[in-house]
Structure formats: C-alpha cells, structure tokens
Amino acid sequence: MVKVKIIGAGGFGGVGAVELLTRHPEAEIVCLQDITDIGTPISALYPHLAGYCDLEIVDGEGQRAKEPVDVVFLATPDGVGMKIAPQYIDAGVKVIDYSGDFRFDSQEDYAEYAGRIGRDKVHASSALLEQSVYGLTELHRGDINRDRMIVGNPGCFAVSCLLALAPAAAKRLIEPRSIICDCKTGVSGAGKKPNAAFHYPARYEMMNAYRLTGHQHVCEIERELSLLAGQSVVITFTAQVVPVCRGIMSSVYADLKSPTKGEELVDAYREYYTDEPFVRVLDRKAVVGSMHVRGTNRCLLVVDVDERVNRLRVISYIDNLVKGQAGSAVQNMNRLFGLEESTGFTAPSQYP
Amino acid sequence: MVKVKIIGAGGFGGVGAVELLTRHPEAEIVCLQDITDIGTPISALYPHLAGYCDLEIVDGEGQRAKEPVDVVFLATPDGVGMKIAPQYIDAGVKVIDYSGDFRFDSQEDYAEYAGRIGRDKVHASSALLEQSVYGLTELHRGDINRDRMIVGNPGCFAVSCLLALAPAAAKRLIEPRSIICDCKTGVSGAGKKPNAAFHYPARYEMMNAYRLTGHQHVCEIERELSLLAGQSVVITFTAQVVPVCRGIMSSVYADLKSPTKGEELVDAYREYYTDEPFVRVLDRKAVVGSMHVRGTNRCLLVVDVDERVNRLRVISYIDNLVKGQAGSAVQNMNRLFGLEESTGFTAPSQYP
Amino acid sequence: MVKVKIIGAGGFGGVGAVELLTRHPEAEIVCLQDITDIGTPISALYPHLAGYCDLEIVDGEGQRAKEPVDVVFLATPDGVGMKIAPQYIDAGVKVIDYSGDFRFDSQEDYAEYAGRIGRDKVHASSALLEQSVYGLTELHRGDINRDRMIVGNPGCFAVSCLLALAPAAAKRLIEPRSIICDCKTGVSGAGKKPNAAFHYPARYEMMNAYRLTGHQHVCEIERELSLLAGQSVVITFTAQVVPVCRGIMSSVYADLKSPTKGEELVDAYREYYTDEPFVRVLDRKAVVGSMHVRGTNRCLLVVDVDERVNRLRVISYIDNLVKGQAGSAVQNMNRLFGLEESTGFTAPSQYP
Amino acid sequence: MVKVKIIGAGGFGGVGAVELLTRHPEAEIVCLQDITDIGTPISALYPHLAGYCDLEIVDGEGQRAKEPVDVVFLATPDGVGMKIAPQYIDAGVKVIDYSGDFRFDSQEDYAEYAGRIGRDKVHASSALLEQSVYGLTELHRGDINRDRMIVGNPGCFAVSCLLALAPAAAKRLIEPRSIICDCKTGVSGAGKKPNAAFHYPARYEMMNAYRLTGHQHVCEIERELSLLAGQSVVITFTAQVVPVCRGIMSSVYADLKSPTKGEELVDAYREYYTDEPFVRVLDRKAVVGSMHVRGTNRCLLVVDVDERVNRLRVISYIDNLVKGQAGSAVQNMNRLFGLEESTGFTAPSQYP
C-alpha cells in the first residue's frame, strides 16, 4: 500500500484526491494536512465523505503530520510547494505538486511564469527544478517512474490544450505561430473560496472571457509544444468561464502545413494515442460534450480539419478537477510506484 | 456472482443500475434490454460508461435476452412489470420492479393507485401481489431475503417521506391526520424523455408545484405509515420541481401527540435507525443539503420540533436516482442474495 | 416628478429600485448613496444600466447628498434606517426602509425581532415606530397615503406568506395554531455579497433548509396574521434555498375550521383580492411557477383545499427582488405621493 | 402608431417581439398568428404577459388575421416567409423575416445556404430577393428606410460575429482567410421546442460543440465580410452550446496585415462605431460578460491584439433573443417607419 499525505486537503484539489484515493486499491491516506479547519474531520467539511474518509485535518506540527508516508500530494497554491518539497524529498518521500512551482525545468523558465502571476521570480528551491518532471503523463510517461522523486502536476487548461495539440505538434503538421486555444472552464476551476465573480446570482447566466492580458498556463503550453515541435511555438490563448461546475471545453485551431483531410488527421491522432487509457479520439460527427467526461480521468478529442482553409480544429473535453487536477495526480502516483497507470479508475462516473 | 439483466436499460433508472452494478464486486450484468436503441452499445448512448460497460442493448427476442440470469431489474414504467414478471419468476429468476406494479399487497390497494395514474384498475398478475414485498429496505428488511422472489422498489418521494416519518409513526408519536409532506425534486426524476416543462430555458429559473390534484406516491406513503402507526393515516402531499438535476428535499410536518423536546425526538430517531447503513439522523443545527447525498444511497434526516406548537418537522434529503431508485434496487438485490446490504457502495461520490 | 434618493444603492435592493425608477414616468433619481464604491458610476458596477442611469455613487457627506429630495429609499441592512431616518423625516422627506427597523409598531414588538437577529433590543428611534406603517400595500393600503412619512417595507418571505394567508385569516377560516409556511427562495435573496453557501460550485445542485432555529420574518408574519384573524396566530416556518436566482415559492398549509370545497376557497380569495393590481388567484389546475412572476411585481396564488383532511393549501409565487423588495417599495412610493399604484409597472418582464 | 402583426407568435422569437412592442410608444400589436394554440391568449401560454398583451392567437384564416397592418414580423422557420411574404408586400405591408429566407440577394447565394440546411435550393419567391436587405442595421442602415418593403433579419451568431469583425474588415486590417469565429450560445437559441440535447438533466452541466460539418450562419457572415473587405473572405466557424438561457459570447480571431497595437485597434473600432446606439467598444481590461447585455439590444465588444503574434482578438457579447433576434427586428422596424432607431428601448433590463 502506498501511504499518502495530502497537504491542502480542505480545498477542491484535496478533496478530489481523497475521493480517488479512497477507492484506490493500492493506496491509503494516512494524513490530511491544511492551514484551516484543523481538528475538523474532512467528512464534517465534506459530508459526502462520511464513512469513507473521516480523518481529522491536522496542521504541520503535530504527531500525525510526522507519520511516515510514501508520497505527499501538495494541493497547495503557488509558492507553498517550493518551500516544503525539499524536506519531503530529503526524507525519501515523493512529491506531487499541483501548482506551477515544479512545472519548469529551469530558473529562467520559472521566472517567466512567476512574472505572469506576480510572484517573486526567484524560485525558493531552484535546485529541485531539474529533478522535477512535467506531469502530463501522456507526454512524459517515460520520465515518470520509480526513480522520480518529484512531479509538477499540470495546469487544467494546459492538460486540455496539450492533449489536443500534441499529435499535430509532434508530427510537425502545424505552423508554430498559428495556434489559437479558445478555452472555456467551469467554475470549480477557481476553487472553493467564494468570490464576487462566482457568486451564484452573478454567475448562473454569465459567460465571460477573463485575464486577456495573459494567462499563466500559456507558459507551460508553449514550452511543451515547442519541445514536441522542435521549434519555438507561440500561441494565442483565451480563458473563458461559463456556468457549469465541472469541465473544460477547449477549441484549438492551427494552420496545417500541407493540405490534409479530416480523416487523415483523425488517423494521425489515433495512431499517436494508441493504447492511451484515458484519451479517446473522435471525428467531427461525434455527439459528445463535457458531461461525458464529468467525474472521469478522460480526455475526449474531436479532431477535424476545416478543409476550405486547411485549418486544424480540435475540441478537447476534460473534467478540470479530475484529468485537470487530482486525477492526473493519481495517474502520476501510479507511475511513481510502478502500478498500472489506470489503477483506481475502475468505476464509472454518474450521469446525469 | 449474481447475474443481472436490466430491462429498460436505456433510461435514467437503467443507467443508474449499470453504474452501481459495474462497481459491485458480486454482481455481473449479462444483458441490457430495452425497446429502443436495439443494437446500440449502452456506452454509445452514455459515453461515460465506455470501457466500463459496453454491452449492446437487445430486444426481448434474441439469443442474448435468453441467457440465464439470477435477477432482473425492471426499470420500466407502470404496466410493464406486471406483464413480464411472471415468466421470470416461473423460471426461478428474481424480479426487482421499479414501477408501482408490485408496491401493493392486494388488488384493492393496487386499484386505488391505478386509478390515480389513469391505468386499468385490474392488475395483470394479481396473484403475484401477495408474493411481492415493498422494497423500502429499512422498513421491510426481514421480508427481503433469499426466499423472496419479487420486490416492488419504492417511489422516490415515498422513500424520502417514509424514512422521515417512520420512527414517529412506529412510536405512535404523531396525529395520523396531521401529516404534511412538502416535497421538492430535481428534474431527473422525470426521466430521460424531453418535455416542455423540463426544457432548459423553461426550467433553469423555474420552481413550481404540480399535480396538486393528487400524486400517485401518496398511496404507498399512506399505506406504509398506516401499517407502522397501527391506524389509518391520511397525508397532505405537495410535489414540487426545482432546477436541480439530482435530489429530493422533503419537509415533513406532523402534530405531536404529547409535548416533546427537539432533542428527545432526535434521540428517538437515532434509536430507531441504529445500525442503519444508509440513514443518518441530525439535529436542527446541522448544515447539510441535497449535495451531500448526491450520487449516494444515503438519506440525511434533520429532525426537529417546533416546540411553540409541538409540531414535528423533519427535513429529508436523498438522491432520487440512487436511494430513490437504482440504489434501493441494488440494496434490495444484496438482500435477496444474502449479501452484505452495503455491498457495492464502497466508493464516495464526487463533490462538487 | 418625485425626486428620489437611494441609500444602499450598490446592492441588489438598490439596483432593483434604480431599474424600476428609471422606467417610472413620475419619478426621478437624484442621488445614489452608499458606503462603498464612492465615485463610481452605478453603471460601472452594473453595466446593464449604462445609458439609463449613470449617476455616481456618493457618500453621505458631499454636496450631492444634500440635494433636496422627496423620498429616500433605505436599501440598507437592519440598524441603519433607525439611525438616519429621523433626519430625513424632520426635513420633510418621506422614508421607505427595506429592513426590519420600521416593520413594528412598538418597542416591544421590535425587541422580539431584534432578539432573533442578534441585535440590540433597544430601537434607536423608537418614537418613529408609531408613525411607521407596515408596507405590504395589499394589507395596509388605507394607511399608506400622502400623510404618511415612513414605511417599513416588508420582508420577502413575509410578502409571499401573508398574501397567501390573508384572506383565510381575515375571514376566520383557519385554525390559528395550525399554520405551516414552507418557503423556498432563490439565491439573490441573500444579496450581492459572496458567501460559501452561495458560491456557484456549492450551490448549483444544492437544496437545503436553513435557520431552523428561527427565521426573523416569522415575527412580522405572525403579527400581521394575528391582526387579520383577531386572535393570536403562531406559525411553523421553514426557510429553504434552491438554485434559482430570483423567486420565492411558498407553500402554506392550515386546518380549515369548517368543511370547505376547493372552489369555495378560490372564490373567497378572489373576492378578497378583487381589483388588486398585482395579485392573481388561480385554482389547483393552474400550470404556473416562479418564472411567470420573474421580474414582475406580481404574486400568483394557487388556492386549494385537501378535502380529505379539510386543509387549506396555497402555493404563492413572487419575485423576491421585486414584489419581495424594490417593487413593493415603488408601489408604496406611488401611494405616498398619490399616484396610481401601478405607475411604472407598465412593461412586461422578459421570458425565458 | 405602427400596426404590427406577428406570425409565429407563440415561439421565443414571437414572444420576444411582443415584449418589446408592448413597451414601444409608437407601435401597436394588432394580430398574433400561429399554427398551434389557436384561440389561446398569448398570456395563457406566457403568463408574464397577462395584462400587457392578452390577444388570442389566431390562424391565418379568420377575420382577425385580415385586419389591416403596417408591418408583419415573420417569426417563422426557414421556408415559411418565402411563401407568405409576397401577399403582404403586394398589399403594401412591410415584412421583417427572422429566417434565412431573405438574407440573400440572389438565387445563387440562397442556394448555397439552402443546401447547408437541407432545403430545396430553389427559392419560392426569388423575385423578392433583390428587394430585400440584410437586416443588421449597423451595416446596412442606409438601405433600411421608409422605401424598403422587406428585411431579412440576421442570424444570431452572425450578429455577434459581424459586429466583432466589421471594422477590421472594412478597414482592410485583416487577412481574409485567417478568420476564426469561436461562438458559444445559450440554449434559448434553439427555441421553445423540447429536444434531447436541451433537456434540463442533459444540459445543466453540458458544454459541447455541434454541427462541426458546417453551420448555416457561415454563409451570411462570409457574404457580409466579403462585401466589407472588398475581397473574398472565408472563415472557420465553431458553434458551441453552454448551459445559459440567454446570451452569445463569440471570440473572433484574425491575423492583422500589419503590426498593430491593442490601443490602435480599440481606437479604430471606436471610430467605426461612433454614435451607434447599441454597440459599445471596450479594451482588454474591461470586466464584462453576457449578463451585462442580457435582455438588451446591445453588443459589447472587447477589442484586443495579441501583439506577440499580431493577431486580432475580439470578444463579442449579445443577447441572442434581443439583438440576435427580436431586438434587431424592432430596430429595423423603427427604421422602416422613420422612427428614431432606439425607440422602445428606453428601459433597462433587470439584473441579476
């Protein structure tokens, strides 16, 4: 059994991990840590967990927080992981960090990201950056293994866009400066904390674009696409919120280098994602949407070419809280401990 | 392994059973039958099931429909079960019927119900009525066992109201003609078929009461309460729909026969429901709601007395598609085959 | 032209008044006052008002706040009106207060209310209590007139329940201790300020009862019903929130003193509300709901008797932000200045 | 007073016109015609209209349908207007058609559109095509005047995209084959008729792209942009549905021909739309969304350049039922009768 501690357990990212790990046959949650609600059972905060996980939330000081674990999930905001990861790694505990702290290989790359989110550009544990791997399993599977100590779990928008573009980028099918990612997220992506923009009366009929001046997920998308394409990729990225709770629908566009039929592109994507347990490639006639991945670790890709202008169009659907966060974390955990990658994802979600 | 066939597999009641049974360690779905979508895999109708259950839907004629099973779930509307149940029972196959067809013990009781829903008052298999048991497990556990061949699964409103009132009725605490059940349901209770009242634009901001002239679930609620109370019970029942997908919130009221403190009533309810795996009794200070039972087989009861007028007030929360339908069916199946009653309910639901 | 100042202009209650007054042919908004967003045009806070009302929000100190007005709308929380009303009344300016500050006639009645909401039981302007009138126009029309200086605008739940019960109480048809008010409100009733309970992800599928220990609107409902019935009335009141933005659906129940047919009760209600511009009485077969009063100053009443137990049941629908708040305020303003009561309500709302 | 008949009065497009015209000081509805609900007052179908418009719906045969009118709104699906428009025009009655029947100048253009929607490519009244004008007032104001007899009201997606792109196209700023329109609509765009895709349980958490094989509004967008740009424009268009009732958010992208700053583009748009009563140009820092145009005839444009790749990005917000349909129709009516263009739009909408 993999012994797991979750830090930041009381947020949506933490509770998402609790839900997945309580049904995971090879994992055991031994500690839930946070900075609020200390002493409260997680099942008092989230009554649906009662009987499944009733651990009390602890702070970092007590005995419970010192119990030995194999892996710690850092479901914490930017800036936290870089401070506490070293102590775990030094103690031989693997780290899966949800924030942007460990998504970059170098101090330089991190600095660009930090600038976008208004944080100190100096990484507090820059030595760890080289040890970390970007945790989009489908792109870095080979580097997420028993020898790896730390994973930077990807951003939710980045998961949806990268899975939508990776085959085309890797196969050098698209113009590197022609890419547009038009992304729509559900409200849960903003987390548990109330906010004027996500107050029910202000949101129930509200669609809006936000942060047009630059979204932080752009850094990791461009970095990964550039790696895949073998040349510098620059994207236009639009973040939008619509009144659903869970889900991301990203529509991505790019100019194709040479005339391509829709079916050819579908075939290319299917080949690229052969044997992927969580990615499913569909053609333009598919009738699917975000509810079909809700609660799951899956990504649905509707792959299409606008043949009149030879432009790739892919619609990508994920659940921002699962494949976009806790699900990817568990998928990564499975690999870090040599388990079958889909372990723990054996039950379907519920519809409607 | 219990071999299961589901008839009416393509509706919400059928797919709810598929979701629960695919995660059930002792059950195996061997046949999905319906009258539409023949030849279509259930996972084409419901893409979230892909990889978990990909059986094709069959009609009642082919080879697949003839394969031996241990139990059949009749997720079918009123009038279907009474026609097809006998053939299964004669063949030694147990039957769990979702409709009102087998919720009554006698032709007389059935006739009253049939009149309310505008159906023929003559039951097509009246001989089976005596063999059937009303499938609210918490009230009839002793009669739902290995020897039983047929269960009439309860109506969703009835589940919420009966669990809210059973302790008070059984303990003879309330006046039998003072009971009011004010019930609010989510839209999924109306099933999968589109309808003007449940069209998104007509519903997203719509609350309304309906069928004030008489709701069919009243019959079974009054029958069960009368049995518990040992005297004739007559209720006032109001059905209302609000724009949620899943959930029932029933507020029930009744005059208490003698002055009672809120805490006393809470204690009485807790005693009555001792050891119940799916019922949880809370006092008036509890901060809970329908989202806390969403996707689960649980019932939350907030038990209270308005001491100024000595009136019982209980707020009852269930998921209409689980404890109100497929979950109760699986709970009953577990008992019919001598399994632990909570088998298959080992994973938490997902929030938010 | 009636010159109007709105204090608390930036909240939902303030903006609701702005919307109604900009389309009112006999009123003119001359000042919008608040304690936040000073200097911001109301149309920057609420872009839908751009071009219709672009006044800047001012604090109480500047020149603008001193301009002469005929009436001030106090769209402010409990405790504010009692402090600032006297200065306006002394200056000959009429006051319409949204809070509970002026809903009571006496210091004693106020004290009970203040206790429920945890405020100081001593009213800061108790001398004004006698001068104030309870502003449910349909019940106190005669006292809301040109001679009146101050109105205590009613609570939203109270509007829905009192209109549902007034005819039965006034005609002495119901048992005074048998009344139950089961009320469901939309989220906008809680105002503009974000809150964990009204965060979109926590609310979109959430129904729940709250404040079972006692809701403050009970005081005014019982007081008014007692006045109408000529005897002491005690009610059981349940407040519930469901995921709609606008609307209240209250289901009220009471034992009828003598056997009554449904049609008789409908007739009695229709007689009582003859010529009321905003109340419409329907029988149990009506197919209506909260969307049909959305954005309007109307109350729809579905009047019914459960004849088996001789119990009155009325379903009452209002828009909590209009008839439950700003609409009643404008209706009262019309009366205070001798205008036709429905002035300014000449356009239909929008559906869906 | 302009006397108006509405055909197709019972649908969302019809009722939207009724709402706007009842508040219009220079218009009078004299006849509501449809093919269903004959004899039913519109206020029985839509109770919010009671007291504002209680006309009975008539068929085309009776006396009422023969009363003289000045203009007829054809709130009817494709194929209806082309059959009945001639009789009105011959009688000197102006026609505003909501469908695609009169959006095209020539039989050739119509045939392409008809092919996309699977209709007969031969127009039943092709002689009228030359007489008709495309009714996006902002683009064809000069041709929508007292002399004009027939207007082809624009498609809702087309309104949002054309207003977003017209200045850039007219000023020849963008590459004509680089345009992408990523559009998200609320559910009311699909009309009143229930449908599996818009059933509340299937929609409340559902985002999806649809009709990727080709949306019919592409024809009119390309035709208008080509006219503006003076060269052939080909767009990539993606239609998506999200769970809001009202609203369209279109994000449009195009490559700029020469390096352009964001502020320059904002200025160019503001100049183009100087004095437009219903279009408002904002820069990338604006915090706005679909709720801010809800219920109004306005279009909000957030104008931006992704300067790293020199790509135009405009986010366009409209209410699909107002500016996208009935509001544009009334705006056109105003022009057809020489009224001030914004007549009847004098009241703000309601928020939230």
Largest interface: A-D, 47 and 47 residues
Number of separate helices of chain A: 11
The oligomerization state is homotetramer
- What is the count of distinct domains of chain A? 2
Topology overview:
Four copies of one chain form a homotetramer.
Chain A: E1 2-7, H1 12-22, E2 27-33, H2 42-45, E3 57-58, E4 71-74, H3 81-90, E5 94-97, H4 107-116, H5 126-129, E6 132-134, H6 137-140, E7 150-152, H7 156-170, E8 179-185, H8 200-203, E9 208-210, H9 217-229, E10 235-241, E11 248-255, H10 262-272, E12 279-282, E13 299-306, E14 311-318, H11 322-336
Characterization of the model:
4 copies of one chain form a homotetramer. The first copy, chain A, is 29% helix and 21% strand. In chain A, the strands form 2 sheets. A 7-stranded parallel β-sheet of chain A has the order 3-2-1-4-5-7-6, sandwiched between helices. In chain A, helix 7 runs parallel beside helix 9 (217-229). Chain A has 2 domains: 2-154 and 323-336, NAD(P)-binding Rossmann-like Domain (Rossmann fold), CATH 3.40.50.720; 157-320, Dihydrodipicolinate Reductase, domain 2 (2-Layer Sandwich), CATH 3.30.360. Chain A has helices at 12-22, 42-45, 81-90, 107-116, 126-129, 137-140, 156-170, 200-203, 217-229, 262-272, 322-336; strands at residues 2-7, 27-33, 57-58, 71-74, 94-97, 132-134, 150-152, 179-185, 208-210, 235-241, 248-255, 279-282, 299-306, 311-318. Chain A has 352 residues and is of the alpha/beta class.
Structure summarized in a few sentences:
With 352 residues, chain A is an alpha/beta fold. Chain A has helices spanning 12-22, 42-45, 81-90, 107-116, 126-129, 137-140, 156-170, 200-203, 217-229, 262-272, 322-336; strands at 2-7, 27-33, 57-58, 71-74, 94-97, 132-134, 150-152, 179-185, 208-210, 235-241, 248-255, 279-282, 299-306, 311-318.
